Amino acid sequence: MINIPKGTKDVLPSESGKWQYTENKLRELARLYNAREIRTPVFEHTELFVRSIGDETDVVSKEMYTFEDKGGRSITLKPEATAPVARSYIENSLDSMSLPLKTYYITPAFRYERPQAGRLREFHQFGVEIYGATSPYLDLDCISLAYDALTGLGLKNVRLKLNSIGCSECRKRYVDALRAYYADKLDEMCPTCRERYAKNALRLLDCKVPACRELTKNAPAILDYLCDDCRAHHEALCGLLEGIGIPFEIDTGIVRGLDYYTRTVFEFVTEELGAQGTVCGGGRYDNLVSSLGGKPTGCVGFAVGLERIIMLMEKQGVDFAESVPDVFVMSQSQEYAAECIKITASLRRAGISADTEMTGRSLKAQFKYADKIRAKYAVVIGGDEIAQEKVKIKKLSDGTEEECGLKALPARLKEIK
Predict the structure, then answer these.
(1) pLDDT at 276 over 60
(2) How far are the Cα atoms of 185, 193, 254, 276 from residue 271, in angstroms, in the given order?
(3) How much is the pTM?
C-alpha cells in the first residue's frame, strides 16, 4: 500500500463539511468588506520568494519545496501567498483598477518543517491583501476584517497583539541596538539564534527556546527607535482600534520573520493551542511591490491557517452547521426503486437535497441508513403510494407524519425543511 506523504492530510467526507462551512463564512465576510478573490498558481519561479521573503529567512533557506522543471527553471511550491499576489498585482497592472484594491484568497501552501498539531507541510490559508495606500485606515480595515473573521467563526479567547517594526531606517537603528544588547550573550543563546544574530537579528525575538526567551525580556524595544512618521502611524492606528472597540495589547516581541514587512505587525493568539498559539498573523509591507519591480505601493494583509482555525473551532465546540440531506426516499421493495429515483430527481431539481436507496437494502435497513446520514425526513414509496399518488412524510427526529400528494411533495418539503 502507498501511504500519504508525511506532513499532509486527507480531508475526508466526514470532515469536508467543516471546511466548507468555514470557507463559506470567510468568503461571505470578505464580500462584506468589498474584497474580491484572487487565485495564483500553486508554484512560482523561485526568485519571487528569494527576492520578497529574503534568502536569509528560515522559509527560503530551510523550508521551501524547490525543484528544477524540465526546462531547467527553478520552481518553488508557494510557501505563502503574499508574494504571488504582489507578483500578480504588478504583472496584470492591477494598479489601474480603483484603489484601494482589496483581495482575498483561499489557497494551499507548502513548507518543509516538522509536522505537529495544526501545522502541516501542505497547509491551507485564508488571506487578505489590500493595496493602494499607506494610511493607518487601511491597517484598521485589515485588522478589523481579521477580527470579524475569527469572531464570526465563533472563536473565543483570541487576543490581538500589535507592534510596529518601523521603516528601514528605524529598523537599521534598532537592529544595531539589538546586536549590541546580545553581543555578550552569544554563549547563552541556542545555535539557531547565534546564526540569526549575524543574518537576521530581528528573529532573535521570535525564538521559542526558554533560555532565549528569557534573554528577550530585557532586550531593547523597537517602539523606542521609531522615527516620527512611523510613531505617528502607530499611534493613529491604536486610536482607531480603540475607536471601533477592538481590544488589543502592545507586544514588542512581534517582529515577523519575512523581510517585506514594514511598520504595523500584528497577531491574533490563543492559549488553547498550546505553545503554537498564533492563529493569524499579518502586517504592512509597503516595500514589497517596488522590490519586485513595481511602483511603490502601500500594502497591508494577513493570513489565517485553516487547519489551525478548524482545530480551534472543534476544541471550542463551534457548531459547524454541516449540510445534511433534507429527505431520503425509500422503496418498500426493489420493484419500486425506479419510481424512487424519479421522485428523487424531481426533488433535486426543485432545490431539495435528496437521496434514495440504491443498494437493495430492506426497508428497516433503509431507515437505519437515513438516520446515519442524518436525513431530516423520509418518504416511503410502495404500490399504494404510486396508485393513490399520495405519500407520507416522516420527520425522523420525532417520528411525526403527514400525508402529501406526490405532485405537491416538492413544494411541501420546501415549506417544512
Answers:
(1) no
(2) 30, 25, 16, 8
(3) 0.87
